[in-house]
Amino acid sequence: MANNRNTLEGRSFSKGRRQFLQGSAAIGAGLLVPGAFSRPANAAAPGTITYALSAYPPNLRPFDWSGQAAVTVKALLFRGLLCFDEKGTVQPELAESWEQPDPRTYRFKLRPNATFQNGEPVMAEDVKASFDAIRGAKSTAYVRQAFQAVETITVEDPKTVRIVLKQPTPSFILALAGQMAPIVFAKKMDNPDAMIGAGPYRLESSEKGVSLTFKARTDFYRPGQPATETVRFVAYPDDSLRIAALTAGDVDIIEYVPWQSMKRVSQTKGLTLQHSLGSFMYVVFNLKEGPFTDPRVRRAVAHAVKREDIISAAFFGAGKVLDGVPLPTGSPYAVPELEHLWPYDPGRAKSLLKEAGAQNVQATLLATSTYGFHKDIAEIMQQHLAAVGMQVKLALPEWGVRVSQGNEGRYHFAINGGGPDLGDPDDLTAFFGSGSDSYRRSFGLSDPKLDALLNKGRHEGDTATRVKIYAELQRAVADSVPVTFLNFRAQGWGVRDRVKGFKVLSDQMNNQVGMAFDTATVS
User: Fold this and answer.
1) What is the DSSP code (8-state) at residue 159?
2) What is the pLDDT of residues 285-332, one digit of tens each?
3) DSSP 167-223
4) Which of 326, 503, 488 is nearest to 421 (CA)?
5) Distance of CA 101 to CAs 3, 125, 146, 267, Å?
6) Which has the closest alpha carbon to 404: 447, 439, 452?
7) What pTM value is reported for the model?
């Protein structure tokens, strides 16, 4: 019997992945509890941490991915059964402990003192209801595909839940530890904008498009946490204003430190730069209609882009070429001969367009005006593609509109940013696998061959066999080009020295930054 009975009462956590809050009144109604802020002896220390977001969250729906800013904020409201520590090791969260009696079965024992923000205890029925919603036939949950591995979810007693998988799935436990599989109050699930979580803070107030203010719960299940009474998020979409707010002391932490400002922040007295290289940029395509339904045209795009220009112009050299499949540094699944699937080759791009009968492609490239580096990449690609005969117009709406247009497939191709969620090659399902429509994947993506390989790799327990499966997947991706990747990018956070205990996790876990507010303090 594999047994994992870890407890976690003190830790230093971190990060996660943006603009106007849909249904903010409904969220407020769902999360504000009269009399919630009576102050017992173990209340959080007085003080306020002000965090500058790069964009105001489009929504705070617990199961949806709507950008880095939203994921960071949602960590204050929602928690799952498990989490990651700063080394990327799975640890208990709402679960007090868990065991794996056989390769297909997990049994979770819930914390006896875990409660939702309305004061109701977290029960096994809530776990079942949350996971049933995620894996439902009409679910739009970001991790729905991972939950298709589940055969049954059984409530064994009020605080014990048993999950049986259809077959062994090594990455499933990692999906439970990410931020996209939270547990919500089962009796309040009718409105996705008003779901109630078990996170350490309550939403006290919000000004749509501007700010959100959170107050520490006094009944959080982990003693001494959260450590600071108030966390205030303020949207600063403009890079220069975000930096100015940090250096002036108007905010304590900023995300998305502009790449041209990283050196300055690192050398400024009273400031610290935390950074990682786990995030990357990529291009998605509309596969249902338009010029990119032909894989040869998609492959032409992949070969036409000079990625070094993107790193130099958009990221001031703080990045790394990515013309293959994104895998963590040192990953056993990385195959040297498959590292560069789409090297810069404008001649090859022209030949592919001619072969496809598409020498006069006209297309619209969707990016956003909210993030300067998205706009920069779009402009650079426009030039590169013009050089091979493609006429490209740019669409640059603000982030919330960008997300909506992406989800609805209102584009020909589009710039995206992202990063790994699991630290496992099963992360690639988010980019190559069939699933519900999301701006993060190509619209209309449905490739039986890729799905079969992803499914095979997901359930294989032998590492050597998995290496062969994912090598075959990379070869298939090279031909079909469901997306094309551009570059790894350095991701930076500027932190004032008065903030203690705030730490961004390692490269492949940097999307967990919202968890850092559990232990962060201000002096």
Assistant:
1) T
2) 999 999 999 999 999 999 999 999 999 999 999 899 999 999 877 788
3) S--TTHHHHHHSTTSB---GGG-S-GGG-----SEEEEEEETTTEEEEEE-SS-SST
4) 326
5) 7, 21, 21, 52
6) 439
7) 0.77
